[in-house]
Amino acid sequence: MNFENILITTEEHIGIVTINRPKKLNALNKATIEELHHAFNALDEDENVRVVIVTGAGEKAFVAGADIAEFADFSVYEGSQLAAKGQELLFNQVERMQTPVIAAINGFALGGGLELAMACHFRIASDHARMGLPETSLGVIPGYGGTQRLPQLVGKGRAMEMILTGGMIGTEQALMSGLINHMVAQEQLIPFCMKIAKKIINNSPTAIASAINAINAGFSDNGYKKEIEAFGECFGTEDFKEGTTAFLEKRKANFPGK
Questions:
Q1: Could you list the active site residues?
Q2: What is the largest CA-CA distance in the chain?
Q3: pTM for the complete prediction?
Q4: Each residue of 48-75: b (16+ CB within 10 Å) or e?
Q5: How far is CA 106 from CA 117, 120, 208, in A?
Q6: CA dihedral in degrees (153, 61, 188, 41; nearest 10)?
Q7: Closest CA to 247 of 127, 138, 143
Q8: Residue whose C-alpha is closest to residue 109's, from 25, 193, 8, 4
Q9: Residue at 256 is within a domain
Q10: How far apart are alpha carbons 11 and 70 in whole angstroms?
Q11: Which of 20, 103, 171, 182 could lock onto 57 through a cystine, CB 3.0 to 4.6 A?
């Protein structure tokens, strides 16, 4: 399959997926999500690939969010479907892969970008990376698993602060809070991920798959369903209309609170 928005390379049993939309800061649009779904599916089925690394093109962004223009006019139903389809097609898919997936965060990981990184089995970031879930500044909430995976990683209090303020944190704070596993210099990011991947490759593929399944079993899916419902309901509010309009018009939002 030919891809327009992503690049795939393989070496030494390691697959590297690069989201390649640098002019859009690698933002996730529908086409990119669809391509990532097919790419991850193929890599997971390839017995020659033992670890997958996902990163963004360039040094500015891993993924700087979703493509707001694609859903600014969505209804409540369309919003719910956006979250439900995205979660199942990509984010839940990555989390459930039997092949370990490492997120190599090479810059901004915001909104859907951070949600993608959190769906990976663990995360390594360059020392200049910035992470956050700014959805509330648009009158909506994270809809690709962010309200569930962030508290699992950093705890309820820190997750509440990040989501309610919509602010970004740097790599040092992300490391201290457990959001990422390691912080390295930009030029060492992929080599460091490769080094860890090679350690994983030394171990039993069947045992690794079983370990992933066992760890994932400790977390309930009920919260993700609640997130989908709440995400969709946001699309029926005046706040959402104002937030997305302000974003596209590049101005500060004036939320009516309705």
A1: 115, 135
A2: 56
A3: 0.91
A4: ebbbbbbbbbbeebbbbbbbbeebbebe
A5: 11, 15, 26
A6: 70
A7: 138
A8: 25
A9: no
A10: 35
A11: 20
User: Does residue 38 form part of some domain?
Assistant: yes
Percentage of residues of the chain with pLDDT beyond 70: 99
Q: Is residue 105, in this structure, part of any structural domain at all?
A: yes
3-state DSSP percent of the chain in helix, strand and coil, to 5: 50, 20, 30
Q: Could you give the CA distance from residue 113 to residue 62 in angstroms, rounded to a whole number? A: 7
Cα angle 70, 75, 80 (rounded to 5 degrees) comes to: 85
Q: Which domain holds residue 75?
A: 6-187
pLDDT band at 225; cut points 50, 70, 90: confident
Per-residue model confidence as pLDDT tens digits over 154-213: 999 999 999 999 999 999 999 999 999 999 999 999 999 999 999 999 999 999 999 999
- Output the six-digit token pair for 177: 């809070």
DSSP H helices, 87-188, are 92-96, 112-119, 146-154, 156-165, 171-177
